[in-house]
Structure to design on (368 residues):
């Protein structure tokens, strides 16, 4: 029986639990054994925690009951320095072989997926080294010469290229919209201005969509920084809206927002301008981690479930020669794409921003 493990890694995102549930149950339905790796790569490297509890646990059908409606990730996630080093990956390979696992489904961001693909590339070498040092025997490694890696993208930022949506992004957007609606009531009552900072380092998707869905007056995105004279431009827009009788001003700032010279534009700076130059009663609201938590919305349950099921199918029908796939959603269809290609394209956007080629950053986003 094939043993397939699932892990969540990097930042948590609502819907990850649905993906874990789908992997476990689809694996069992396909006559495989399912394993969960607790606390991301930390669990893979350590194998047991400080109290001696297993971090790579066999999962039964019932173990994932009730997962669909729960936010965060019930199997835990972590950032793991050791896995970045070959020594850590050696320990991880040994732990996997000892459990007879040679397929790993990872739900995480681009960092987690890059690490996973590197692990797969090194796998035969890692096993040989473990045999050489006497930690494993030739018989141990014989049935597990190839490692299957399949990626699922769990990220509230919706920042991976080649997929229309990442697991968690719509729950996060929903929460942002509700939070903006909440401050809108206060804004309307007191005729205030609110500058709302939302997550998104290189990706302005949350900010842009939240701006669209809440009718914000102005939006700051990392891919498309405002013009040099943004204070004037924004000021005119806000004053025009106020002159038309609008009692509120809502400005959405992505946490990675900057000007065309890559100088950060903090939400507080925007608030200060609205207060000091336009004379508005202006406040800053940083939504922070409230954007990550809470119950997953329908779409993230749907996405996690379909992608988790597809990931198991991808494990079962990829050959050692097939590049590691990442499961994507394109025009409402679940599809597989080469994991490394998707990560590479994602990094291209960050590179374009870093080299101030905002036209390219925007056209890459358009192409997504
Ligand atoms: P998020 O988008 O939420 O930040 P992420 O998956 O990109 O998620 P990272 O912190 O980049 O988050 O990566 C999570 C973990 O994946 C790291 O702590 C590390 O263990 C592993 N990892 C990331 N990049 C690599 C790499 N290049 N080589 C090996 N392991 C890596």
């Amino acid at each position: 029986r094939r043993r397939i493990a699932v892990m969540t890694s990097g930042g948590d995102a609502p819907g990850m639990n649905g993906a874990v549930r789908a992997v476990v149950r689809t694996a069992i339905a396909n006559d495989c054994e399912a394993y969960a790796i607790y606390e991301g790569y930390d669990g893979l490297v350590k194998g047991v925690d400080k109290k001696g509890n297993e971090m790579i646990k066999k999962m039964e059908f019932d173990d994932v009951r009730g997962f669909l409606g729960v936010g965060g990730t019930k199997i835990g996630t972590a950032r793991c320095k050791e896995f970045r080093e070959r020594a850590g990956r050696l320990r991880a390979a040994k732990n996997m072989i000892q459990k007879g696992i040679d397929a790993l489904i990872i739900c995480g961001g681009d960092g987690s997926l890059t690490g996973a693909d590197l692990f797969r590339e090194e796998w035969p070498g890692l096993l040989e080294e473990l045999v050489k040092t006497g930690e494993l025997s030739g018989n141990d490694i014989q049935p597990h010469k190839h490692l299957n890696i399949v990626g699922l993208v769990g990220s509230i930022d919706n920042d991976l290229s080649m997929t229309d949506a990442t697991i968690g992004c719509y729950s996060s957007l929903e929460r942002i919209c509700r939070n903006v609606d909440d401050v809108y009531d206060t804004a309307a009552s007191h005729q205030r201005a609110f500058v709302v900072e939302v997550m998104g380092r290189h990706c302005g998707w949350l900010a842009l969509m939240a701006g669209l869905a809440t009718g914000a007056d102005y939006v700051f995105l990392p891919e498309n920084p405002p013009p040099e004279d943004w204070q004037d431009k924004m000021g005119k827009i806000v004053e025009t809206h106020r002159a038309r009788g609008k009692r509120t001003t809502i400005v959405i700032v992505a946490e990675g927002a900057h000007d065309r010279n890559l100088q950060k534009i903090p939400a507080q700076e925007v608030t200060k301008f609205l207060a000091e130059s336009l004379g508005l009663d202006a406040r800053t609201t940083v939504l922070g981690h409230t954007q990550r938590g809470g119950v997953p919305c329908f779409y993230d349950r749907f996405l996690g479930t379909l992608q988790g099921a597809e990931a198991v199918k991808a494990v079962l029908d990829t050959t050692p020669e097939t590049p590691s796939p990442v499961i994507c959603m394109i025009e409402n269809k679940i599809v597989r794409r080469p994991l490394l290609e998707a990560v590479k394209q994602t990094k291209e956007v960050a590179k374009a921003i870093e080299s101030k080629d905002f036209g390219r950053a925007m056209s890459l986003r358009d192409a997504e």
